[in-house]
Specification:
By secondary structure, this protein is mainly α. The protein is built from 5 helices and no strands.
């Protein structure tokens, strides 16, 4: 597995853990992050979507997705903290959400670094 594929694989594992927590124990994660707990189904919908993303990242890593696909994940993950910051500034969500965006940005930079190290693979 290439370095860049490994970064996607590790990110898939992270997303898998987050998705399972959101699906089966969302309030544990929310309260740990200092966020309001909920009984709404939407948090579990987010967990389901996160599980699907985890699957996509896992498959992309396992099949050594083309560099263009890996670069697309970098761009998408770098926008996550931008959106989360906008949500926070609008007052739609509490500030700890940005911590998830920071993880996305760090993981994106790791993939970027791996891709750049070999000239984009």
């Amino acid at each position: 597995m290439s370095r860049s594929a490994r970064t996607l694989y590790v990110f898939a594992l992270y997303l898998g853990v987050v998705s399972l927590t959101l699906l089966f124990a969302p309030n544990v994660l929310l309260s740990t992050m200092g966020m309001a707990t909920t009984t709404e189904v939407w948090i579990r919908v987010v967990g389901m979507l996160t599980a699907f993303l985890a699957l996509y990242y896992y498959v992309a890593a396992r099949v050594e997705a083309p560099p263009a696909m890996m670069w697309a994940t970098v761009l998408a993950r770098l926008t996550v903290p931008v959106f989360f910051l906008a949500f926070i500034l609008e007052g739609w969500v509490e500030w700890p959400l940005i911590l998830f965006g920071v993880v996305d940005a760090i993981a994106a930079m790791w993939t970027w670094s791996a891709l750049a190290a070999v000239g984009g693979e």
